[in-house]
Amino acid sequence: MKAVFEEINGDLAVFIVDHVQKTYHLPQSKLPKDIEIGDVFEVEIINENQLNLLNKLPKERIRRERASRAKREALLKRSQNKKE
């Protein structure tokens, strides 16, 4: 399972887990030192409410950023074509 580090809210880190309709929170003290917003991690969910970070997935972050960029470019082209 994969999760994205979304934001810091107070002293909690917010993660959004793929295909799960819930956000998870971790204390900042449990985060790796080199973490940045947008990082993707392999995770496991324990007892339905506890998130455990397993591995950072830097290639997955790059893949997602490229896919988002391509979607934005396609939407921009589509909106420009409608104006013409």
Describe this structure in words.
With about 80 residues, the chain is of the alpha+beta class. It has one domain (about 1-84). About 30% of the residues lie in helices and about 40% in strands. It has one helix at about 60-84, and strands at about 1-10, 10-15, 25, 40-45, 50-55. A five-stranded antiparallel sheet has the order 3-2-1-4-5. The chain is elongated, with a radius of gyration of 16 Å. The model has no long low-confidence stretch (mean pLDDT about 90).
Structural class: alpha+beta
Helicity range:
25-40%
Unreliable stretches (pLDDT < 50, length at least 5) are none
What's the shape? Answer: elongated
Number of strands: 5
List SSEs in N-to-C order.
EEEEEH
Q: End-to-end span in angstroms?
A: 43 Å
Number of domain modules: 1
Mean pLDDT across every amino acid position? 92
Q: In this structure, how is the largest beta sheet organized?
A: 5 strands, antiparallel
Total helical segments: 1
Which percent range describes the beta-strand content?
35-45%
Strand order of the largest sheet: 3-2-1-4-5
Radius of gyration: 16 Å
